[in-house]
Amino acid sequence: MVRSLTQHTYDALMMDIWPRSAAIVDFGIDSAAHLGALQSAIKHGGSIEELDATIDAAHSGDALNAFVQKHARAYRDVSFETVYDLLPSDADDD
Question: How far apart are CA 67 and CA 56, in angstroms?
Answer without folding.
Answer: 13
